[in-house]
From TrEMBL, chains A, B, C, D:
Keywords: NAD, Oxidoreductase. One of its GO terms (molecular function) is NADP binding. It holds the Pfam family NAD_binding_2. Residues 164-283 form the 3-hydroxyisobutyrate dehydrogenase-like NAD-binding domain. The active site is at 170. This is 3-hydroxyisobutyrate dehydrogenase. One of its GO terms (biological process) is organic acid catabolic process. InterPro entries: 3-OH-isobutyrate_DH-rel_CS, 6-PGluconate_DH-like_C_sf, 6PGD_dom2, 6PGDH_NADP-bd, HIBADH-like_NADP-bd, HIBADH-related, HIBADH-related_NP60_sf, NAD(P)-bd_dom_sf. Residues 2-161 form the 6-phosphogluconate dehydrogenase NADP-binding domain. It comes from Prolixibacter bellariivorans.
Length: 289, 289, 289, 289
């Protein structure tokens, strides 16, 4: 099976590496070519254009940043979809909104390309360790076709349903993630003003059953004032924004998620866009003098 | 040591029972006398008035519903504090706000009564099993004096600091609890409109590291549409309201907690005040047709 | 000048009627044909398809409900833009978001059609009386070309700037409108629970300089429980949603507008989508028992 | 009639001055004595303590900052109420919450002192010009007794109802005021990012019927970056906080007001507490880079 991987950012580079290390036939493409160097050393082929990258591929995996970027790269003037082989499979791992996935599937179909939305739960470290969870929307037999790839890059695959349902599920997961972080951070900031030490709060609150377990992974870093990026704050806000789009489409109020989205927007304006999303605490503490 | 326990609601009755079962010398008082019957069978003494209840006590433990109720029962015209022995210790386990605890301590001092705020983390089941966590504000030597009682009723005692700090910590814990529940419920309600089954969502989302572990205890009940009370929704809203008071006093914005408070207020208006706070999902689903 | 008017809803039918009454050469199109009957009696020509409607027009004015509908009717398989005369002018009065207007302008340009965004401030009655305010984005000379039409349908024209700026300004106007209504309604509902009569509150609060003057136009109707539509609640929520899109694009938090959007979403779910947006008070009072 | 005026801040000094200028018998008291100097020149008597100030008064008018301050000055160890003449009338013009007014009335009654809540609508300039609106809660005959004083200090008196209803109405008025300002400011900040000039936005939006008329009084100052205090931002947040208390007591959600309260809290933390509340725009623009 000839595989093409498009998008070698924090996530994509680690996912592709796991495929390459298994000696699979992998062609990679990234807008910034330098990102591909390490993968080439490990055996990947690098393509100069997306057209070149996809023309012989049986499976094209994309892991990009936003719906807008997927749209440009897949369907823009030099978009790759029109260069794919007939009946090839495009697996989009980007976090987008369900409406976007469904549109992308329809457009791909018009080029006789199969589409699958397969966003992942898990960030930098699980991507590195091959421990992602794939949330798949699309036909079951298409999923079987690439199950072995998901098994290399991840530890679990959930078939969420038809096209768009993988993306739908991802919306919910990241909404929980984003909100748990900001709820925790608001409490820590208040707690400090109440007179507790930050270290005490980080340890005490993160150990409680009222706190999402992933927080524990953030508290050590927060203690040492380390906000190096695992999941960029700006993508977290994007994900809440996409959730807002789909909540609107579904006619379901999401008060908490909406307010969380505005809090992340404030943090972006505060200059934390490219930090880890746990930097939300730095933005909040600015408003608690 | 003569112990008096005031307030035999969902929590207090179970906490007192654990003390009584240890054959300690316990006098109980509740506004509704019937609540004491079982405890009397087990060996407790019941008092007809709070004055009677506390007059010989070395330690008075109160577990009531709101700051207003504590104020009435402790400091009203027939308030118990003025009837306490000199230098006796009053341990208030009610969830109140830190300002209230500090005021209560000051007033108690004027009657030569020692005060300790000792709210608990944990609801009905941990109360029953003696697995509460006590969050204590007050003097360390006062805490040692009643440590053996905390050990009977709970599995852990945290000395949070001076008077009011136990209450402060409790504010933060319940804020996490209240918000985690509503964040989860908003996602489930949206997820259903997206096309997922409720059972799938309850299982899938509650198993993720982005979800607070206590949610798992709620999902089985939600599946069977069981909202029988463990922690009444109206007290959850009260706790968020108290958090709002203390956040105001500390000059710290709490956007998420404020909005959560309004969502619980809406649920109260929807008629779910006396249900378990997990009934927030029933209120939210009314707004997602 | 041959004019075509597409979209004969609450607003469009009244705007077109004012043009027709001036004996201008007007062709109209609406998906539901019956809407055109009265205009035909007054002298308008009715077209059976949008292609027919626009093929000879010098100016095409569209007044539709949502960006999605504009997209279908303008650019769908039987979209009208490709049937317009070379260099003809399309004036879109629909409330959309600025990004949409800019995209529409770019697509129109590819068909050699000029584009102008010209949403209006004012609802049913101003539309009827020819007292709308046009908020125009586009080239100044294009605006001059249709100024006489704006003067018939409106009382004022504001040249907001380049393409998209008319729409941008409309976003802000409707955001104020939507929020002023919900802020007022929340206070009335609270005031009633405080013990004031609704009539007193409606009169007293609406007369104050702290209240937007348009509220006065709503209070008489609210008094008589009349929520017949002047501006449908569902479009108000749509407009707040579009504001959210553009706020996201601009990186500006809009906490109040976001929460207002969720409140309107709740009201839609409560069944008030097709009532006047002042029915927000009916939704709020359901949550204030 | 012997009148005592307690509290000579921005509002109180101007209100008292209008009484003094009418050659009424006025004794004044302020914690900072210097504030009384000008009034003494005009004929007022200054008292060194509140006890001295009130002992002969028929009417005591208080205009203070917060419920806490009223509580200290009226009921603290050297509180003035116990020094008032039997059956004298205390008129509290401070903005407090209705529960506080009702408590104050009950406590005053225990000293045989009559109480009236009479907060005002209007800030610095109307106070100076004697154009305030008094919102009165209490007995009608008590109100008649001091109507002549209200007529000097104000242009209108509204008898809102029994004790606490003046305060209740004030809550609603200030809630509208606070929210209208922040809604407007959010739109201006977004509008600037959209590409409009601030001057254009201030003029255009403030002239629309969707905008509260008082905004017009703020826009000139905002244009010249003048945030000198007419109504301090920190008291605006206090008022929203008090509204929150009474909304909780009444079981009525106030989503918009709650979020506005958090926005003002953020602005306080940003250092704008002692500026005019229109400085909310400066806080918001910090989060819109």
């Amino acid at each position: 099976m000839k595989i093409t991987f498009i998008g070698l950012g924090i996530m994509g580079s680690r996912m592709a590496k796991n495929l390459v290390k298994e000696k699979l036939d992998v062609t990679v493409y990234n807008r910034t070519q330098s990102a591909a160097a390490e993968l080439v050393k490990l055996g990947a082929t690098v393509a100069k254009s997306t057209a070149d990258a996809v023309k012989d591929a049986d499976v094209v995996i994309s892991m990009l940043s936003t719906p807008g970027v997927v749209n440009d790269i897949a369907f823009g003037d030099s978009g790759f979809v029109k260069h794919m082989k007939q009946n090839a499979l495009w697996v989009d791992c980007t976090t987008v909104d369900p409406g976007f996935s469904r549109d992308a599937a329809a457009k791909a179909r018009s080029y006789n390309v199969r589409f699958m939305d397969a966003p992942v739960a898990g960030s930098k470290i699980p991507a590195e360790k091959g421990e992602l969870v794939f949330l798949v929307g699309g036909a079951a037999h298409d999923m079987q076709e690439v199950q072995s790839l998901f098994d290399i890059m991840g530890k679990k695959t959930v078939h969420a349903g038809d096209t768009g349902m993988g993306t739908s599920l991802k919306m919910l997961v990241n909404s929980q993630l984003a909100q748990a972080m900001v709820v925790f951070a608001e409490s820590v900031v208040l707690g400090e003003k109440m007179g507790f030490s930050r270290d005490f709060l980080l340890e005490f609150l993160s150990a409680l059953p009222v706190t999402a377990p992933f927080i524990k992974l953030k508290t050590d870093k927060i203690k040492s004032n380390d906000y190096s990026v695992e999941f960029p704050l700006e993508w977290m806000q994007k994900d809440l924004h996409l959730l807002g789009l789909t909540a609107y489409d579904n006619g379901v109020p999401q008060f908490m998620a909406s307010v969380a989205s505005e809090i992340y927007a404030s943090a972006k304006a505060d200059g934390f866009a490219r930090d880890d999303f746990s930097a939300i605490i730095k933005s909040l503490e600015k408003r608690a003098k």
